[in-house]
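Dear support,

I submitted the protein below through the web form. The confirmation email said the job was done, but the results page showed an empty box. After a refresh the structure appeared. I'm attaching both so you can tell me whether what I see now is the final result or a partial one.
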Amino acid sequence: MPDQEPQGQGGASELASFGEELRREREIRGISLKEIADATKISKRFLDALERNDHRTLPAPVFTRGFVREYSRYVGLNAEEMVNRYNFASATDDRIEKPPQVEKYPQTPPRDISPKPPRKRGIPPAYARVNRNLIATAFIAAALAAVAWWAVQHRRFGEEVAAEPAVVSTSTATVPPLVPKPAADDSTLHLAVEVVDASWVELEADGKTVISTTMEKGERRTFEATEAFRFRKIGNPPGLKLTLNGAVIPPFEDDGKTIRNRVFDRQELEKIRAGTPNPQTQS
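What the results page shows now:
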């Protein structure tokens, strides 16, 4: 009979073929690991481990998926398809540690249903011995007296008002002056970044790098600058929603290109508010 594949090795072979395919596609295109590492800022050690399926060297799967996405985009593969293939291969690989399973319905501690002795009754306090009917009668009497007093005072006030001569007011209503709307404070630039789809982002604020990593879906970050922001690279431009000092920056086009060296300063802020932003820089 033909040899059968051992149980539990399907995931390992899937993961092995996944890494071998990445290496084969890279070599066909004549791209070195150093070139990918320099472009994506991913350690060459992690890229090599990805091709060799060395899961002990690779970080957590959530970070490894970002590496697969950047690697695939750089060599010209369908990034989302390769990420889905990695997810399938890693999910069936017995060598990768899975999170411990937590009991869904923990057991409820047993209740003490043994009979309890009746509570002892002592002498009731003084307020419990007072006749409640007397309290209700006193409350009603006080309420009626208050209503009668109010009626007398209201009648007396009406008589005083009727006796006074009418006074015609000659003053005119004063219209409050219009207060001008305060001008927007643009002394500091504030850039809000909301991630709707994972994207590699390299951002500088006043010439200093403030972020250089893959931002995952759902992240929200705010950055400050005195002069200008500069996106050295946006790997998946449509995956970002940007707001500069409260002005919404028009979304980037979904044309599959990487945006490089995109600058946002006060001059660009005025154009965004006027509805005429500069065209996006791509490569």
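Response: this is the final, complete result; the empty box was a page-load delay. The helical segments are 10-28, 33-40, 44-52, 61-75, 79-91, 132-163, 266-274.
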